[in-house]
Design brief:
alpha/beta; 6-stranded mixed sheet; Death Domain, Fas; Rossmann fold; 3-stranded antiparallel sheet; about 325 residues; 2 domains
């Protein structure tokens, strides 16, 4: 990423002040999502700050493409040619530039997904379910559905899903569980308004209870409120001795290789449009359409978060902001 940033700075420094003004105008009106606004540009007065804004907003894979579009509108064919070449080179990821390559999980074997969705009393939920199903199918997951379950049915189906993975053991690469429902702090609600603790669900798939998933990614996408607080946004203006186990037998932490995505911060509401569906899941669809399967899952959901954070939402005419929360104990990169 630093190599790309330096290249962007060099390009911007070569431009005159009138050209930079024109560049910012076309950048703001490029049509690329997530949008760069006038306020964003006001907070990036130098070429260095502008380069930071571009690379953070569009990441390594998207920045060359955005620059090509802007330079085409500026009729700077020399820079169009330069950045088209950069785009084709598919510049390396940040950890590939800055040190040893991050090892990847082996994803060649079957991928298993569980999709639970409470549709009753949740307008837009059907749209969410369709988007998630399409995303998972494009990523070659074999999906198990669970629609409008009560607590007994949900836990039985999750247990059956988990036990099925244990049964095939070496023939599974990854497990992904999506839970879409009403919820609160640490729990989701069934169609009968029963509470199910998320920790109980996570525990079902840990290294002790599901040994078939040891050292394999276990991904959880949660679309549910985590409380009742609303974030209106802001105007920008250990010392204990540690013992080391030298046993020759390999040991794993109980909860390693997890990746959990929440649609909002703790104690806060999650947003869902009655027609278009949930904010996070809409953003998942948009990022997947733009980047496909090129991004490591952490980068993928960082881009999803970028879109969500830089979009303004309203409830009862009051502004509300949303930010995703990602928790990870992954030890390798996950590419679908």
């Amino acid at each position: 990423m630093e190599a790309l940033r330096a290249r962007v700075v060099s390009t911007l420094d070569s431009m005159s002040q009138p050209e930079l003004k024109e560049f910012k105008f076309y950048l703001r009106n490029s049509g690329e999502e997530p949008r760069i606004t006038m306020q964003d540009l006001d907070r990036a007065p130098t070429t260095s700050a502008l380069a930071d804004l571009l690379v953070k907003r569009y990441v390594v894979s998207g920045t060359p493409r955005v620059l090509v579009r802007v330079f085409q509108r500026m009729r700077r064919n020399d820079l169009v040619a330069e950045w088209e070449t950069a785009s084709r080179m598919n510049l390396k990821r940040p950890y590939e530039n800055d040190g040893p390559g991050l090892e990847r999980y082996n994803m060649e074997k079957p991928r298993k997904a569980f999709v639970m969705c409470v549709k009753t009393g949740r307008p837009g939920a059907e749209q969410d379910r369709n988007i998630i199903r399409n995303w998972l199918e494009e990523c070659k997951f074999e999906c198990t559905s669970c629609i409008d379950p009560d607590e007994k049915e949900l836990m039985e189906k999750l247990t059956e899903f988990r036990d099925g993975i244990i049964g095939i053991k070496d023939d599974v690469s990854c497990c992904l569980v999506t839970l879409m429902a009403h919820g609160g702090k640490g729990f989701i609600k069934t169609v009968l308004d029963e509470r199910v603790n998320l920790s109980d669900i996570f525990e079902m798939f840990n290294n002790e209870n599901c040994p078939a998933l040891q050292e394999k990614p276990k991904i959880f996408v949660i679309q549910a409120c985590r409380g009742g607080r609303r974030d209106g946004g802001v105007v920008q203006a250990d010392d204990e001795p540690m013992e080391v186990d030298d046993s020759q037998k390999k040991r794993l932490p109980t909860f390693s290789d997890y990746y959990i995505i929440y649609p909002t911060q703790e104690d806060h509401v999650a947003l869902r449009h009655p027609k278009d569906g949930s904010v996070m899941i809409q953003a998942i669809d948009e990022v997947f359409r733009q980047h496909g399967k090129k991004l490591h899952i952490a980068d993928f959901f960082t881009q999803v978060n970028n879109r969500v954070v830089h979009t303004d939402f309203y409830m009862n005419k009051n502004p509300i902001k949303v930010v995703l929360v990602m928790e990870s104990t992954l030890t390798r990169a996950v590419y679908f």
